[in-house]
Amino acid sequence: MEPVLEIRNLNVEYGLGDKAVRAVRDVNLTLHKGEVLGLAGESGSGKSTLAYGLTRLLAPPGVITGGEVIYHPEKSDPYDVLGLSDKALRAFRWAETAIVFQGAMNSLNPVHKISTQLTDVLKAHDPKMSEHSRNARAREMLKLVGISPDRMDAYPHQLSGGMRQRVMIGMALILQPQVVIMDEPTTALDVVMQRQILGQLIELRERLGFSVIFITHDLSLLVEFSNRIAIMYGGRIVEEAPAGTIYRDALHPYSKGLLSSFPALRGPRRELAGIPGSPPDLAGMPSGCSFHPRCPKAFEPCSTHIPVLGRPGTPDGAARSVACWLHPTEQPVG
Amino acid sequence: MTTQDVKASNSPGFSVPSGGPGIGVGTVGEVVLEAIGLTKHFPVRRGLRQLLSRERTAVHAVDDVHLTLRRGRVVALVGESGSGKSTVARLLAQLYPRTDGDIQLHGETTKVKGGKAFRSYAARVQMIFQDPFASLNPVHTIRYHLTRALKIHHNAGKSEADLENALNELLTRVSLTPPERYLDKFPHELSGGQRQRVAIARALGAQPEALLADEPVSMLDVSIRLGVLNLLRDLKERLNLAILYITHDIASARYFADETLVMYAGRMVEGGDSETVTQTPAHPYTRLLIDSAPDPDRLAGDVDAAEEDRGNGEPPSLIRPPSGCRFHPRCPMAMSRCSVDLPIRLEIGDKPGHWAACWLYDEATVKEAAK
């Protein structure tokens, strides 16, 4: 599989100097063509910061302190997104990588019609396009996400939450980007609507062939909808594997804990415990593996040495990676 | 409650205080709080255009809800946002006046508006809110929050030492130990899970008989949700509390509750023992809800299998709710009667107590539709 986006040793900090908080630490991750990559983690694990970092949307005091984000365009040579000039960055955003933000309720401008907001994007990226073809494209997009095109002239408040979220998805896809980042796209929606929208998104991906980075805290949703899952804890990726592998045979104790934090709807009813303790404070990160104070299997090296993300020695080790001293790695990733 | 009672409940093993209403009295299964035909309509402000018309519009938030909370039992109320589940909790807490129906505490009709009557009602029925970031005052310490709850409900005892004991006791009950470490902290110094535990401790400060928990874990991090649910279950068993658990996550209702009730657009559509409702759902809406819940066993690939015709669409407007069954415009199995007559509660017959408000379980109607 061809890579579309390669993240290499990305570091993001909030603040400067001694007081800086390292929100994303040495993250290596590759997004392949046409896949859905799930990024799971609790609040404060750095998953949203990672997404904003790689699109250079971080607001101050967020600073990218190191690393590379290599983007592979369809027709030309790969380049580093972090090194783009302002002008090149404006062209790159939306046309190559689009993002769907968390609260659809708040991401649309309440005083503009849906049609204005959809065609605005086209106007900015392709000023030569005629008004007629812009409108035609916007209608086509609405149809694609399952909204009747005669709602073009509606204001956001006239649409329901689910419809607004669909408009956001349509808007993200309007310039046919290769990569779509979805930051908790359905958390504000009901389960029934969530399933409809995600089902539609998967269908669109098959039709249009874009790749998705899907950020959420709901691991059971990711297992169902993504191809590969990366789990973040304390700013680092602690495990990465195909979705089915994570679900059946997670290696990292945190991934296991996260999986057993969801009561099952089917199968035998069993006692679940969750994970003891609470997520770490990024300003005062524990030494060594940041999960060791909550880990039921912690032993000597955990509190002093940071485990490196690498291929484990298991038979299916080539397709997965884990950062845990319980699973000594044969070859580090990146 | 006297000082003696506080001391008694402070003794190791959380022994039951003697006499008076409060924690630990009564047997498992005793009815504490009952809602009968509970109804709440919120009036809609009339615009200029409607000023001259006689019609008065209202949001039919909750219609004809029946539920019973028993000691030592958890009842889950499941529904989507806008289904009226939080309104039910607020009605039961007497935070809103009801439009119609009755709330009975130990078989007695209660209607309180404020003042002393409300306080004595609140001492027996306490509420836990969804957002522990908003329900604690950021400028006050944990000690202040808990002391206030104890003093208002006269559980603080007579001396400083009694109060200190009661405070320690409360924090120990919600597993925030050692208590000294948390008492003088401010809410922002605690994590979400710890804050929700403080909110629970504050509710326990009143020594209630019933807890109304409105989405108590949905704002918390995934890994600590179960910790809070397990704590509530533990408290239910030790203190013999009646708990109403409001949630949108039907899987957690199965895990935590003894009985599950499903609400749709302001009405109850199905109810029964949690295991029965989640494993053999009877109402088409409950089936839709369960099919829509994320299921890791259904791996990527067969996502859109049987996706069609399962009742897609959205909940209706509650200002002019659909006639007959409120689910009929979305229901894949709707019959002609569904759009005319409001379905009554019908026994399903697979397990005792399992009912659904759906004409599919009325033989005469099904036969009529088959013709």
From TrEMBL, chain A:
UniProt keywords, alphabetically: ATP-binding, Nucleotide-binding, Transport
Domain ABC transporter: residue ranges: 7-259
UniProt cross-references to Pfam families, sorted A to Z: ABC_tran, oligo_HPY
InterPro entries with a match to the protein in the record: AAA+_ATPase, ABC_transporter-like_ATP-bd, ABC_transporter-like_CS, Oligopep_ABC_C, P-loop_NTPase
A GO term for molecular function: ATP binding
Coiled coil: none
Domain of life of the organism encoding this protein: Bacteria
Keyword Nucleotide-binding: yes
Name by which UniProt lists this protein: ABC transporter ATP-binding protein
Organism of provenance: Paractinoplanes aksuensis
From TrEMBL, chain B:
Compositional bias ranges of the Polar residues kind: 1-10
Record keywords, A-Z: ATP-binding, Nucleotide-binding, Transport
Cited InterPro entries: AAA+_ATPase, ABC_transp_ATP-bind, ABC_transporter-like_ATP-bd, ABC_transporter-like_CS, Oligopep_ABC_C, P-loop_NTPase
Keyword Transport (UniProt): yes
One Pfam family hit: oligo_HPY
Listed transmembrane segments: none
SUPFAM superfamilies, alphabetized: P-loop containing nucleoside triphosphate hydrolases
Region feature Disordered, mapped onto this chain: 1-20, 293-323
Organism superkingdom: Bacteria
Domain ABC transporter: 33-290
Alphabetical list of CDD domains matching this protein: ABC_NikE_OppD_transporters (cd03257)
GO molecular function: ATP binding
PANTHER family, A to Z: ABC TRANSPORTER, ATP-BINDING PROTEIN, TRANSPORT ATP-BINDING PROTEIN
Protein name: ABC transporter ATP-binding protein
Organism lineage string: Bacteria, Bacillati, Actinomycetota, Actinomycetes, Micromonosporales
